[in-house]
Amino acid sequence: MRVSRVQAEENRQTVINVASRLFREHGFDGIGLKDLMKGAGLTQGAFYKQFASKEDLAAQASERALESASGRWSAAIAASPQDPLGAVIAFYLSMGHRDEKMDGCPVAALGSDAARQGTDVKAAFETGVTAYLEMVGNMIAGTVGQKTDDKAMAVLSTMVGALLLSRVVNDPELAQAFLNAAGQQVRETVAR
Fold it and tell me: Mean pLDDT across the stretch 139-145?
């Protein structure tokens, strides 16, 4: 049965959305095309009509995941304009975010995997990281001390690193300690 162009595009978007979540949960190499397509409710044969390769899908899914993450940051900022950094710290450095690997930060979930991928995946991550840095820079603009760009990089590095470390330990108290320490360090960095 032939699929309309509209349905084909909807199917393609579904695959990208599902892949953005499943890649964050399993890694780029931790899930095959058959399981990705099954997760989207489609057959593996449909994949080749929509994507040039698994790397093509990985790049598009990474872009989607990073856009979604930036949207969460924007929503937190909009919900707390009097303390936007505090709002981002509250959701990003939380146990809830630590535990939601499928919808959580793609940089923490896939950063080391992305470093081993091709230029298209890395370009998607670079765009996403740049968007994060811009948001952090806007939140801390006007602080004294270091250049805003340097502070934004330190803030982002601290937050991503803490989230990653909190995810690799079993002990919830140690995980929470990483998140708490990072939140304090971010506030101190911005205050300098």
Answer: 68
